[in-house]
Amino acid sequence: MRRQFGAKMTIRAYVSLRQKAIAEVLDLEGICIDHDSLRGSVFLDSSLNINQQIKSFFLLYKNGKLISMLSMFIPTKNEAEITAYTLPKFRGKGYFKSLLGKAVEELRAFDIPELLFVCESPSISGKRVIDALNADYDHTEYFMRFDRASYTRLNRYRLILLKAVQEDLEKAIAANMKVFDDSREESKSLIENCFLSDTREQYLAVLDDEIIGIASVNLEEEDVTIFGFGIVPEYRSKGYGKELLHLIVDDLLQRGRSDITIDVNNENANAIELYQKTGFHIEATYEYYRKKSG
């Protein structure tokens, strides 16, 4: 899908990106990160979007060169997390507004009601865009990175770490619903998309033949990302979260993967303390701002 700006400006919309487009986006991102002294990175995996038909990447080209991009992460039917970059010398010219307009049209077509803009805290230009949008502050998340030198393996474990397969689908769905209070539809979409991915793995935490926890990892890039991590409510505050995180880290280290990251809400003091004691430190801070798509 393309929208023409005269003869030299084009917007291209994609459900997923091929390698050439990914390379272009990463080049653009690198320039913006260096210019704005940022630390984060754009999320380019659409495999966890609740509907695999939604176009979630919008790229704007001038004379064949990528100058602005917008991506959407849509894990539930309630909201789309939006990240965008524009080359510094092309800012303030309405390019992001054009991309956002196309993205909102797509979201309305699929009845996604809200936008959640992601802005790294030090981004001055990002904050200006948020102010212009009149979006409301929602929450802040920390992006945390593992430091192997700060990690100490546990001496014993009560839990067994199970790598889930397709036959475990219903068990994984039930666990996800208990841990995150998600609907069955949302949980089923999340777990099924994980099973379909070549780079994602689904873990279950088992205690005496009962599943009491869940977590996933994404091994697509050099960094391994832990997400969807949690313990069912009745087993919390008993040290099982600590065991589950250590089991996952142990497994990744044994496979030679030590570049491990995890996200956490800044108000979740217990999780932050757990991650820090396991060897994670805060690398970047993201602020989220909410606005209706209609």
From TrEMBL:
Residues 9-149, 160-294 form the N-acetyltransferase domain. Gene3D superfamilies: 3.40.630.30. The keyword Secreted does not apply. Keywords: Acyltransferase, Ribonucleoprotein, Ribosomal protein, Transferase. Signal peptide: none annotated. One of its GO terms (molecular function) is acyltransferase activity, transferring groups other than amino-acyl groups. This is Ribosomal protein S18 acetylase RimI. The lineage of its organism: Bacteria, Bacillati, Bacillota, Clostridia, Eubacteriales.
